[in-house]
Amino acid sequence: MKEISVAVFDNGRRVVLLDAKVALAEKGVEYKEEDLTNKSPLLLQMNPFHKTIGVLIHNDETINESLIIAEYIDEAWKGQAPLLLSDRDQRAQAKFWADFVGSKVHGVGKRIWAANVEEHEQAKKELILNLKQLEEALGDKPNFGGDTFGLVDVALIPFYKWFYVYETIGYLKVEAECPKIVEWAKRCLQRGSVQKSLADKKEIYEVVLGHRKKLQLD
User: Which residue segment(s) compose the domain that 22 sits in?
Assistant: First the structure.
C-alpha cells in the first residue's frame, strides 16, 4: 500500500470528506487522519484560508472540497480501482451526477436537519424528488457506473447514513419512497472500503441533535 503524507478530515461525523475516505480505501491508500475540532499546526499552516473545513494534504499540496478531492485521488492513483471510466461521455455524466449529489442531496438534506420543523415540508418533497431522479439514473445497474463502483457511488453512499437523520427529524421514510436507492446502498455496504469509512448513523444523529439544541431549533 502507498501512504500519503497527511490526510486531514473532520473525524467522520459529518458528510464532508467521507466520500474521500471511501475513495482512498478503494485505492488501497493508507493515510493519517486528524480531528478538525483539534486543529494541528500543520493544518493551519497548509490551509490558512479554510481553517474550518476538511482538506486533503498530499505531497505538500492542499486540496479542498469533497468532490474535487475524490477526483484528485482518482487521478493521483490512476492505475488502481478507477472511479471514472475512460469514455468521455460517461465521465461527464458521472461528474454531473456526483455534483448533483452535493447540491441536491446534501444541500436539500441540510434544510431538514438544520432548520425549524415548519421549514421541513418543502425540503422533504425536494429530497425525495431528487433521490427519485438518482434512482432513474441508476436504473437496473448494480452501481451508478454499471459494473464499476465509481465516482457517483462514492459521492452518494455517505448520505445513506444520514437517511436516519432525515427520517427521524423530518418524519419521512426514504425506503418507502425510494427503494432502489436503499437496495443500492445495502449493496455498497458490502464493500470493505465503505464499511471502514462511514460514520455510525446514531453518532451522526447525536451530533445533529447537539447542533439543533445549540441553535435552539424546534
Answer: 2-76
11's torsion region: left (phi>0), alpha (psi -120 to 50) or beta? left
Task: Check pLDDT > 60 for residue 102.
Answer: yes
What are the pLDDT digits (tens) for 169-187? Answer: 999 999 999 999 999 999 9
Evaluate whether 49 touches 98 at the Cβ level (below 8 Å): no
Residue 19: all three cell numbers together:
466520500
**DSSP state, residue 200:** P
**Which residue's entry shows cell 438544520?**
114
Q: Tens of pLDDT along 124-142?
A: 999 999 999 999 999 999 9
Using CA atoms, how far residue 64 sits from 8, 56, 95, 146, in Å, is 10, 7, 17, 28
Helix (H, G, I), strand (E, B), or coil: what is residue 141?
coil
Q: Round to whole Å and give the CA distance between 51 and 142.
A: 38
CATH no. for residue 16?
Answer: 3.40.30.10
Q: pTM of the full predicted structure?
A: 0.86
Q: Are residues 97 and 198 in the same domain?
A: yes
Distance CA 118, CA 71 (A): 37
